[in-house]
Amino acid sequence: MIKPLIILFNTVSVFLFSFFFGDTPVSVTGSFPKSAKIATEFVSEIKINKGTVGGFAKLQLEVPQGFTVKELESKGGNFSFATNIAKIIWTSTPSDAEFTVKFTISADASAAGQKVITSKFSYVNNNNKEVVEMTPAEMMIGDAPAETSVATTTQPETVTPTTTETIPVSGTPTVSASSDNNAEPNSNIVCSRVITNGSAANSHNIEVRIKKGEIKGFAKFQEMLPAGYTAKGDKTNGSSFSVSDGKLKFVWVSLPSENELVVSYILEKTDASAPDAKLDNGEFSYLENDQSKKIKLPIDMVGTSAVADVVKTETPVQTPTVAAEPTSTTQVTSNEPVKTETTSTEPVKTETKEVVAKKEGNVVYNVQIGAFRNAIQSDVLSKKFNITETIKSEMAEGFSKFMVGNFNEYKQARSHREDIKQKGCNSAFVVAYNGSKRITVQEALMITSQKWFK
């Protein structure tokens, strides 16, 4: 009689614990030096808190050009490194709820300067592939002494193919001031788009050329897809191409060293009744002086009535400037070469001016305090962590997620996260929303032209 009662008691205890506290969100925390000497190996770690996740999983570490990654401890996984990407693949994840993998990393002379390292952990949950991204780790490669920095986790998201953002159209990048000493030099940037007829009916080849000068690090080219059209990647020039939410993107974690980038995609009409495509949202984004800058491309029309065999628009952009004088483009509908003529032979006068980057969208930062598979009331969390402010909740990806705070500045959200952690909620982390859509913190920082604070 006593034994059945003990079993019943244990079962009820487990149920109540699961009910009130749910599953621990998967998190990824990286430990990397803030600085390192050239051609010197240093040890880096990534800690994965997987909770009850089991089965197939993959950890991907993406480093800039000039870096070399070697396996030190993979916890039984299969390690590989090629083309600036290190991977550890597990057919079955380690049994420990939390485990740490280690690498030895070195950087050659070509990698000197401020660099960014990213990582993500992919796993299967309820037959859905999900990913948790580590907050990018910043490093200075040079002669400074190494000190360790910790990169934490952004929210888990259902995986869609990674894409680089931006379709180049020339325009004037917005600039925001910064007191950092490690800023890349300002560069003249020239973006051009070349449009030719595709091999299939109702398709066009869109080639984007970006003369980037000396800018380095993270960059993105993005284009909104016209209604009734789809896109396929062609030339990527070292970027990651993806199409989602009506956008096509080319994303570089670290820009190639060459001065000119060439990417291309195939634009196809899927709806025969759709009008000629209007490309009016092309944008090249990049980081300079830890601030986001954007270059808008000019409008182009794509279609049998708007595009000849070749249409080319090329406008130089000076960084930073006020808008340049307009140019006119002659579009040709025959086999004659395209002629591009400016409205005047006089040099274009621009006024150098520093402009604070415009904030786009309705981006806010919250602090997530919990995510649970089973139903739970917010007042349970209020009592557990002594939280008096309003707790918001949403259901996403099979989790009930709970957030506090509503901040326009990432730095304020980060400070609030630390306050919440002091109350015992050690798993709290910052999340971001653009309107009602949840986005990564990295995307939010670029949209709002803000810096990431450790």
CATH class of the largest domain: Mainly Beta
CATH superfamily of the largest domain: Alpha-macroglobulin, receptor-binding domain
Give the terminus-to-terminus CA distance.
Answer: 57 Å
- Assembly level: single chain
How many helices in DSSP terms? 4
Overall structural domain count: 3
Provide the CATH topology of the largest domain: Immunoglobulin-like
Number of strands: 32
**Structural class, from helix and strand content?**
mainly beta
SSE layout and pairing:
Layout lengths: L1 H20 L5 E7 L1 E2 L5 E8 L7 E6 L4 E7 L4 E5 L2 E6 L7 E10 L5 E13 L2 E7 L2 E5 L6 E4 L1 E6 L30 E9 L5 E9 L7 E6 L4 E5 L6 E5 L2 E6 L7 E10 L7 E3 L3 E6 L2 E6 L3 E3 L7 E8 L9 E3 L10 E3 L20 E10 L5 H8 L6 E5 L2 E9 L2 H13 L6 E6 L2 E3 L1 H8 L6
Parallel strand pairs: 2-11
Antiparallel strand pairs: 1-3, 1-12, 3-8, 4-7, 4-9, 5-8, 6-7, 9-10, 9-11, 10-13, 14-15, 14-25, 15-20, 16-19, 16-22, 17-20, 18-19, 21-24, 22-23, 26-27, 28-30, 28-31, 29-30, 31-32
